[in-house]
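fyi for ur records
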Amino acid sequence: QWRTIALSDSTLWSEVTLSMPRECWDTFLVRSRESLLTVQGEWAWEENHQQKGVLVNSHRIQRLDLDLSQSNDSSRWEQTLQMVAPHLQTLTLDNANDPYENGILTGLPGLDGFLAERTPALRTVYLEMLSFPWGIRLEHLRFLYISSFVTTDEDEGMGLSTYSFEDTLYTLRSARSLE
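which gave:
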């Protein structure tokens, strides 16, 4: 009887991790049916089955929590961030690399369009060691957590992208729900 209950409750299968074996990943996606998903894990350097599953199921993702420390290929991110995630409410992108290491991914090409145009339900954004794309409208955003490092002129080429104060004000003024 418990087995039947577990198999029939799609929400029990709606939390997936990118480290799951392929068979397990596929089983969870099938059994979760059309439930909204929570996806967590390390976004690997090389594209894999689970990453393709994230893109295919982006319309079902409610929470996306990714460790980007092993993924410093910004060109792949631009393609990934073309996905539409209409139900995404919480986005966590953690790039816990040493900021002075060569090849660090400090900004994500396409993040501005993803946040502003393809995630209408987005309410919470956590960015760790990534630059925030100031100058975009985020009217429904309630929480914004940004953690990065401070650079100096001596950190030539290692700093985060710079935005104007006007860009910052534009974003903050548009985020009327920000707490």
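The helical segments are 2-8, 22-31, 49-56, 74-80, 111-117, 165-174. thats all i got for now
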